[in-house]
Design goal:
By secondary structure, the protein is mostly beta strands. The chain is built from 1 helix and 2 strands; from the N terminus they run H-E-E. The chain has a two-stranded antiparallel ribbon with strand order 1-2. The chain is extended and about 45 Å long. The N and C termini lie far apart (49 Å).
Length: 98
C-alpha cells in the first residue's frame, strides 16, 4: 500500500508582497500567524535575483554551493512551503540591510 498524507486548507491568503518578496512573505506569515503554509504561486518581476547554484569547479572551504546575483528585470515564479516555524539563516540577508 502507498503511504499518503492528507490535510485541509483552512485559509487562503492573497497578498501583493511589494518590493522585497522574501521579506514580504515573512511579514505576511507573521501578520497572519502562519506556522506552516503552502505557497501555491508567487509570480512577478524582480530588479535583482540572487540564486544558489552548484559551482562549475569545486572550491575548497565552500559548502559546494555558490551564490550568484543576476541583474533584472526578470520574471520570476515560486512555490513551496512557508511559515514562521523556521528561522531564516544569514544567507537570506540583503547586503546593506539588517
Amino acid at each position: 500500500m502507498r503511504k499518503t498524507l492528507s490535510g485541509k486548507i483552512e485559509e487562503v491568503i492573497y497578498a501583493q508582497p511589494g518590493e522585497d518578496h522574501l521579506r514580504a512573505l515573512w511579514d505576511i506569515c507573521k501578520t497572519h500567524d502562519v506556522k506552516t503554509g503552502l505557497l501555491l504561486d508567487a509570480t512577478g518581476t524582480m530588479d535583482t535575483v540572487r540564486v544558489q547554484r552548484f559551482p562549475h569547479e569545486p572550491r575548497s572551504g565552500s559548502a559546494g554551493i555558490d551564490m550568484v546575483q543576476i541583474p533584472g528585470q526578470l520574471e520570476v515564479s515560486a512555490h513551496g512551503i512557508i511559515g514562521m516555524g523556521w528561522m531564516p539563516d544569514k544567507s537570506a540577508t540583503i547586503p546593506g540591510r539588517i
